[in-house]
């Protein structure tokens, strides 16, 4: 049996008593297959051509249900005042640029060591991780240097 990347998101919706409407399924698919850390607005703009009757509220509701279930991470704002979401809840580092508001994944072995340490010493059964570093990306640093010359 091949598991769809969005399967755990669909399961989370079902467990929360949500019907799997085509719109909700599409939201899960987009989230699970994106490494862009989209905002609700990003999802809305991407889905609108396929689902003309889609409302932003449907997206917000679905994201809230998924976040509450721990199936996705709400990464918070990165200088743009809006929440970015990540469907990858395995331990990894997110790097956010406060200038262009891009969020990228930064794989790190250390983060797995941190998780093992926390799990061993805290007694918690860990379900996921959210690690966000923020700063100014190399592209934006280069742009700043050019503009001050
Ligand atoms: Zn940047």
Description:
There is one protein chain. The chain is flat and about 55 Å long. The longest helix is centred in the C-terminal third of the chain and has 14 residues, at 109-122. The strands form 2 sheets. It has a 3-stranded mixed β-sheet, with no helix packed on it. A two-stranded antiparallel ribbon has the order 1-2. The protein has 149 residues and is an alpha+beta fold. It has 6 helices and 5 strands, in the order H-H-H-H-E-E-E-E-H-E-H. It binds zinc ion (ZN). The site of zinc ion (ZN) has 7 residues, from helix 6. Zinc ion (ZN) binds at residues 97, 99-100, 102, 137, 139-140.
Set down the secondary structure blueprint.
Elements: H1 7-15, H2 22-32, H3 40-47, H4 56-68, E1 73-76, E2 84-86, E3 93-97, E4 103-106, H5 109-122, E5 131-135, H6 138-147
Parallel strand pairs: 3-5
Antiparallel strand pairs: 1-2, 3-4
Helix pairs in contact: 3-4
Largest sheet: 3 strands, mixed
CATH fold category name: Arc Repressor Mutant, subunit A
Mean pLDDT: 92
Helix count from the secondary structure assignment: 6
TL;DR?
With 149 residues, this protein is α+β, with helices and mostly antiparallel strands. The chain has one domain (7-147): Arc Repressor Mutant, subunit A, CATH 1.10.10. Helices cover 44% and strands 14% of the residues.
Characteristics of this structure?
single chain; 149 residues; alpha+beta; Arc Repressor Mutant, subunit A; three-stranded mixed beta sheet; two-stranded antiparallel sheet; 6 helices; 5 strands; binds zinc ion
């Amino acid at each position: 049996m091949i598991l769809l990347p969005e399967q755990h998101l669909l399961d989370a919706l079902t467990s929360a008593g949500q019907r799997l409407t085509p719109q909700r399924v599409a939201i899960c698919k987009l989230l699970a297959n994106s490494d862009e850390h989209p905002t609700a607005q990003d999802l809305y703009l991407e889905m609108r051509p396929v689902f003309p009757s889609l409302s932003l509220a449907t997206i917000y509701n679905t994201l809230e249900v998924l976040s509450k279930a721990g199936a996705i991470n709400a990464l918070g704002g990165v200088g743009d005042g809006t929440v970015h979401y990540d469907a990858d809840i395995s331990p990894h580092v997110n790097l956010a640029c406060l200038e262009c508001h891009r969020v990228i994944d930064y794989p790190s072995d250390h983060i797995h060591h941190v998780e093992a340490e926390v799990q061993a010493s805290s007694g918690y059964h860990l379900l996921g991780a959210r690690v966000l570093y923020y700063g100014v990306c190399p592209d934006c640093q280069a742009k700043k240097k050019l503009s001050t010359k």
